[in-house]
């Protein structure tokens, strides 16, 4: 049942022209962003696009993602049917039935019929879920229900058209269309005129909804249908656990204070966001009543781009600020609420990079506006003057050793540099972890040394807080020191030191083997260099907390669990949120040095979760996590539960050097 091509052809041509113009207008706005190379390693990008866009690997990692896969693949396969539908409206002879042999056409028609039913069922499930149990507060929007209703209407119109054609005897492939045939049986008693009317109404309903849907997409959040697949292709090939360097020359602008200071990929991200809410559900700030919501950050970036984009393309200046109050602006309190835990990055099914954008805006506030929380002033001054957050004299760095004979690192004589870090040098609790590590080094017969008073802060908090200028200076000094000392291998006990030395310092030409203490201890155990008394469980039930900077940022999950199992005789108890889905302690991103004035304290949220496992010990791999867990336990008045680093568990179980 075909329409008059004379009527339909201009309608289709106009719809396609408007769609193309709308897409051009929207996507051309990303050109106002700065250049960024996202085309290298083409084969790897194609592989990632296939795995994450077409196979939907991240989508199905959450239960409701399976429903989305049905909609996605139904939509993809039915795109062939819809293309035929539109072409046949202009060229009636351009039908697959006349172009393909029956051996190909019949299976294809069977797939169209079955997938239309699957899509309809998935849409109904999505509508019920959106109405009854929405993925986040505010998800019950007219747009969401409208989009789902249009998809459902397309499926119903498809069945109405083909059922009427089968009932009239005009569909030769009826035997391959079980759903449409079942509906046709219900129409068997109707007259030819009624069937003809049903077919025509269904055809035009399908055409109208399809053309409207096509032209509505560029103006809705469902623009991700067009942007998500290429966004998976353009994704960062490595975990986005660092930031690009800045060049500090007179006249340069630092950070991102306006929409055109983002890169084109940052802006493309905003069009790829479907506002599914997964980042919001994972974000520790959003979960504890802070003003930060990664989903809304992306929404505001898109709104800001739409407000300023055309003006910027014409060479004008943006009229809507990126940071501030109002629609399309991101509040400073939201930016300072980020713990840089990377949960949003791990949760996003289309690899939107929310966290790096926040750091770019922090850079602008710190370096261009000198606008940052008051408590950070002391931190910045202490770092600049004494190279540590507490402002303690550098000569005090080695005093943690007490009377122990800890050697300084010597090139050619010492194999490993033990980078103690600021917490391990100055924090009274973390010093105990440092001493435990020296016991492990000595028990295993490892050649190691420290820098003593020459050691400086790695600068992690500075970079994540946006003080790139001071970080740049400290990084250059540290790199020069490592090169001067001839350092080749570094062992760290702090994940923040680990990720900075391993990832950030590569930008300064430093290529070293940097090993977190969890992996280092695991390797010593595997080599038989440590002899542990692990027959009796120590510390009661051990609940393990994943460090964001060791886990999500660097993929180290198994090593600490293996170490705990060897040290205690059994695997640790897992929290409900663990591994890549772990919940932050609240201290990352420089939050260690800031007060939590808004919402619930993040560490209390995490400690409450840990206590649900009835732990005797909460085990950590990070000095920041240890501090936050201990503070949380004090607030909860649970003196019976202890917090220990994995190194302390191992040191407690040492029986002496292994025989080798």
UniProtKB/TrEMBL annotation:
<keyword id="KW-0560">Oxidoreductase</keyword>
<keyword id="KW-0408">Iron</keyword>
<protein>
    <submittedName>
        <fullName>(Fe-S)-binding protein</fullName>
    </submittedName>
</protein>
<feature type="transmembrane region" description="Helical">
    <location>
        <begin position="70"/>
        <end position="91"/>
    </location>
</feature>
<dbReference type="InterPro" id="IPR004017">
    <property type="entry name" value="Cys_rich_dom"/>
</dbReference>
<keyword id="KW-0479">Metal-binding</keyword>
<dbReference type="InterPro" id="IPR009051">
    <property type="entry name" value="Helical_ferredxn"/>
</dbReference>
<dbReference type="GO" id="GO:0046872">
    <property type="term" value="F:metal ion binding"/>
</dbReference>
<feature type="transmembrane region" description="Helical">
    <location>
        <begin position="6"/>
        <end position="24"/>
    </location>
</feature>
<keyword id="KW-0472">Membrane</keyword>
<feature type="transmembrane region" description="Helical">
    <location>
        <begin position="103"/>
        <end position="128"/>
    </location>
</feature>
<dbReference type="InterPro" id="IPR017896">
    <property type="entry name" value="4Fe4S_Fe-S-bd"/>
</dbReference>
<feature type="transmembrane region" description="Helical">
    <location>
        <begin position="140"/>
        <end position="161"/>
    </location>
</feature>
<keyword id="KW-1133">Transmembrane helix</keyword>
<feature type="domain" description="4Fe-4S ferredoxin-type">
    <location>
        <begin position="328"/>
        <end position="358"/>
    </location>
</feature>
<keyword id="KW-0411">Iron-sulfur</keyword>
<dbReference type="InterPro" id="IPR036197">
    <property type="entry name" value="NarG-like_sf"/>
</dbReference>
<dbReference type="GO" id="GO:0016491">
    <property type="term" value="F:oxidoreductase activity"/>
</dbReference>
<keyword id="KW-0812">Transmembrane</keyword>
<dbReference type="InterPro" id="IPR051460">
    <property type="entry name" value="HdrC_iron-sulfur_subunit"/>
</dbReference>
<feature type="domain" description="4Fe-4S ferredoxin-type">
    <location>
        <begin position="264"/>
        <end position="294"/>
    </location>
</feature>
<dbReference type="Pfam" id="PF13187">
    <property type="entry name" value="Fer4_9"/>
</dbReference>
<dbReference type="GO" id="GO:0005886">
    <property type="term" value="C:plasma membrane"/>
</dbReference>
<dbReference type="GO" id="GO:0051539">
    <property type="term" value="F:4 iron, 4 sulfur cluster binding"/>
</dbReference>
<dbReference type="InterPro" id="IPR017900">
    <property type="entry name" value="4Fe4S_Fe_S_CS"/>
</dbReference>
<keyword id="KW-0004">4Fe-4S</keyword>
<dbReference type="Pfam" id="PF02754">
    <property type="entry name" value="CCG"/>
</dbReference>
């Amino acid at each position: 049942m075909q329409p008059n091509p004379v009527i339909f052809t201009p309608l289709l041509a106009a719809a396609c022209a408007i769609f193309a113009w709308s897409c051009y207008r929207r996507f051309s706005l990303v050109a106002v962003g700065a250049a960024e190379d996202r085309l290298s390693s083409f084969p790897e990008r194609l592989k990632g696009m296939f795995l994450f866009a077409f196979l939907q690997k991240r989508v199905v990692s959450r239960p409701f993602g399976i429903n989305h896969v049905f909609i996605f693949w139904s939509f993809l396969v039915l795109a062939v049917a819809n293309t035929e539908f539109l072409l046949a409206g202009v060229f009636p002879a351009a039908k697959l039935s006349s172009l393909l042999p029956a051996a190909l056409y019949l299976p294809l028609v069977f797939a169209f019929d079955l997938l239309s039913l699957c899509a309809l069922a998935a849409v109904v499930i999505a509508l019920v879920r959106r109405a009854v149990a929405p993925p986040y507060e505010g998800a019950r929007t007219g747009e969401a229900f409208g989009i789902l209703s249009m998809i459902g209407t397309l499926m119903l119109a498809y069945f109405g058209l083909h059922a009427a054609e089968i009932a009239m005897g005009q569909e030769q492939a009826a035997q391959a269309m079980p759903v449409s045939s079942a509906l046709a049986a219900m129409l068997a008693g109707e007259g030819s005129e009624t069937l003809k009317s049903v077919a025509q109404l269904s055809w035009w309903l399908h055409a109208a909804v399809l053309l409207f849907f096509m032209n509505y997409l560029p103006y809705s959040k469902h623009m991700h249908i067009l942007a998500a697949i290429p966004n998976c292709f353009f994704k960062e090939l490595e975990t986005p656990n660092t930031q690009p360097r800045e060049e500090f020359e007179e006249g340069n602008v630092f950070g991102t204070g306006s929409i055109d200071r983002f890169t084109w990929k940052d802006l493309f991200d905003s069009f790829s966001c479907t506002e599914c809410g997964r980042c919001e559900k994972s974000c520790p700030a959003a979960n504890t009543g802070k003003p930060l919501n990664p989903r809304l950050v992306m929404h505001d970036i898109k709104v800001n781009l739409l407000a300023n984009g055309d003006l910027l393309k014409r060479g004008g200046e943006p009229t809507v600020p990126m940071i501030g109050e109002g629609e399309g602006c991101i509040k400073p309190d939201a930016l300072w609420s980020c713990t840089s835990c990377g949960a949003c990055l791990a949760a996003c099914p289309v690899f939107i990079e929310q966290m790096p954008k926040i750091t770019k805006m922090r850079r602008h506030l710190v370096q261009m506006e000198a606008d940052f929380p008051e408590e950070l002033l002391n931190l910045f001054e202490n770092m600049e003057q004494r190279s540590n957050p507490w402002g303690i004299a550098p000569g005090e760095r080695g005093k943690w050793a007490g009377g122990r004979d800890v050697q300084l690192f010597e090139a050619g004589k010492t194999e490993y540099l033990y980078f103690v870090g600021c917490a391990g040098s100055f924090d009274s609790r973390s010093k105990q972890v440092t001493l435990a590590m020296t016991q492990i080094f000595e028990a295993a017969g490892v050649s190691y040394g420290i820098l003593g008073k020459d050691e400086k802060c790695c600068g992690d908090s500075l970079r994540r807080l946006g003080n790139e200028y001071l970080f740049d200076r400290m990084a250059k000094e540290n790199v020069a020191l490592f090169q001067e000392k001839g350092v080749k291998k570094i062992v760290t006990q702090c994940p923040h030191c680990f990720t900075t030395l391993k990832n950030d310092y590569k930008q300064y030409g430093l290529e070293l083997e940097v090993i977190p203490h969890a992996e280092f201890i695991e390797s010593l155990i595997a080599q038989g260099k440590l002899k542990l008394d692990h027959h009796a469980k120590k510390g009661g039930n051990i609940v393990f907390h994943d460090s964001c900077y060791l886990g999500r940022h660097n993929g180290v999950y198994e090593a600490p669990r293996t170490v705990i199992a060897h040290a205690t005789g059994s695997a640790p108890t897992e929290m409900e949120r663990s591994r890549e889905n772990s919940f932050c302690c609240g201290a990352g991103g420089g939050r260690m040095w800031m007060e939590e004035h808004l919402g619930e304290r993040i560490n209390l949220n995490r400690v409450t979760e840990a206590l649900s496992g009835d732990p005797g010990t909460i085990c950590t791999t990070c000095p920041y996590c240890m501090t936050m867990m201990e503070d949380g336990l004090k607030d909860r008045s649970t003196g019976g539960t202890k917090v220990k680093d994995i190194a302390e568990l191992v040191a407690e179980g040492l029986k002496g050097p292994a025989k080798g």
